[in-house]
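Lab notebook, bench 4. The sequencing result for the construct came back, and we need a structural model before the next group meeting so we can plan mutations. Quick request posted to the team channel:

Model the 3D structure of this chain.
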Amino acid sequence: MTVDVLVEIKAKNIDKTFTYHVPKQLETKIKIGIRVLVPFSNRKLEGFIMKINNNQKYDYELKDIIDVIDDKQVLNDELLQLGKYMSKKTLSTLISCYQTMLPTALKAKQGKKINKKYVSYLILNNDTIVKGKQLEIVNLIKNKGKILKKEANLISSSSTKTLLDKQIIKEIKEEVYRTDYEDIKKETNVVLTSDQKKVISQIKLDKYEPYLLHGVTGSGKTEVYINIIKKVLEQKKEAIVLVPEISLTPQLIEIFKKRFGKIVAILHSALSDGEKYDEWRKIVNKEVAIVIGARSAIFAPFENLGVIIIDEEHSDNYKQDNNPRYNTIDMALYRAKKNNCPLILGSATPSIVSYTRAKNNIYKLLELKKRINNNPPLITIVDMQKSMKEGSRYFSQILIDKIKDRLLKHEQVIILLNRRGYTTISSCSNCGYTDKCPNCDIPLVYHKDTNKMRCHYCGYTKNKLTNCPKCREKINDFGYGTQRLEEELYNITKARIVRMDVDSTSKKGAHAKIIKDFENGNYDILLGTQIVSKGLDFPKVTLVGVINGDASLNSPDYRSAEHTFELLNQVSGRSGRSNLLGEVIIQTFNPNHYSIVCASNNDYESFYKEELKIRKLLKYPPYYNLLTLRISGKDSDLIDKEGKKIVSYLNTKLKSKAIILGPSMESLPKLNNVYRMQIILKYKKTNDIIEDVSFIVYKYRSNRNVNVEICFH
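Done. Here's the predicted structure in token form:
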């Protein structure tokens, strides 16, 4: 017997299997999708068995595999096929696709090993008569059948030792999961609205179909998900539920645990390697039927999926930003089709692309247009140009008054600081003017080395502004963080404030603790960045304040207006989710921008129509597809030269089929001593460009000095 084994080799150009002979004593252990240890050159490598060959002859001598690592498949049949699809879709190596699917403990890598966790139990070995503390321990074992050794030691460690020495009791070790959660299942009687019932009735569980559930914030999308999953479980099938970031998981996990108990597993980046390993094995061992998690949970090794749900489907976090650069929605569509089950994409602010697909009947559109309490928040836009002239830099007077009013009523407040994603954008602190590219309508980015402003799409360059062309005031790159804002807010209110940002949530469990503390009323004000804008549900929050509501308009991205609308609409939805009336104050320098006006009116349809006009004019999705070729290396002259060479090749091959922009420097032109450039393609049909783009990617796989990666938008 021989097997074809896929191993990970550092050389970029090697992406193939190698054939090995299987010694007789290992033949019964061989399965496709398990890991084996093989000799490779002068090393020992782990790899996945991709194919089993019987009675095949070779005209050269094969090396033997050294050992079999797994008893069960690490990659089941569906994941093996999904990896091949991902490799083709992202133009990435097959081994990189399989490695990204798996927890660290199961990757084909030498080095780090994750051990199973065991706990010592005590059981009765014989019924010899004992007294005192020994009798107390023996009686406890008789009552429970077995007890933890540490329970007996709490009674008397010396008595425990004596009982063991006399073999009256016996110690046994049993494997336990690091993530063995308490079973908190509780019966919950939730009365569905007529709109929720209508949506649920339209979702067919016995066939593949993608659905876009457009439900306003507070409309009860989670309850729709839960009821669909109940039906799936009745069919003895499984469910995957995805959220875009771990900050959203604590409340959702609690809801699902209360409704479904211990059959829920959790997969996200905040878990330790050991915890991920345990959760993965729960799934493989069929001990759970529901997985909740972030992006990578789409690879949960279920074999009988009944539904896939992607909440907040508009989020960019569903796109992997390093190789393989997969889009989670693409992976979900593939798995749903393979399992002949529905995919539900939910959002209060669907992405422009997804909503267009629904309009074109590629997705089936489902809508929840009203809040459960039918009580939308009152939203006020504050013009900060006027407010700053009155002397307030951070907080308008109306926001200060509203905060103080809520504190007197013992209600809660969320303050969102909409920070600029880029500190190198030139904007006017007096009137809000931002220097943009005349070709792409994207904010220009300042490059300190050349003292120039540059567009990262088309390469347009100009001198840095010193004075605002609109109001003639001096241009400053200004901004402030949550810590400074917290100080100012405390000085004004003396309230109990908790921050939720990158710094305050760096420790394990910090997200959940902050959310629980705020939910329990330990704080009056939750202050944070975009992390506080979506998915959170606090009944006592009746006021949301947004600082720098237009800051996200200044990111060098064609989707900046879309991101601004999403952010403002989502964070507005955190206010007034119970029977208390909610209010939202949006502070902005651009009070008339359509994304801000539409968000204040909770008017997605008007925003969508306005945004489409601009997208069509500038040839952005959904009218054109976008692809980025990222070129990087340690020699800036070399990557500039290779970038121009690639553009020349693309112009020769694709000039009539695509618009080619660049090469231009990325927003971070140098990172860890690696220079980065990009080429952007706008095109109609993927089939028109894929062959030539693939040729470039494969050609540079063997280049040690220049790295070329591809990213589909």
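The longest helix spans residues 636-654.
Will bring this to the meeting.
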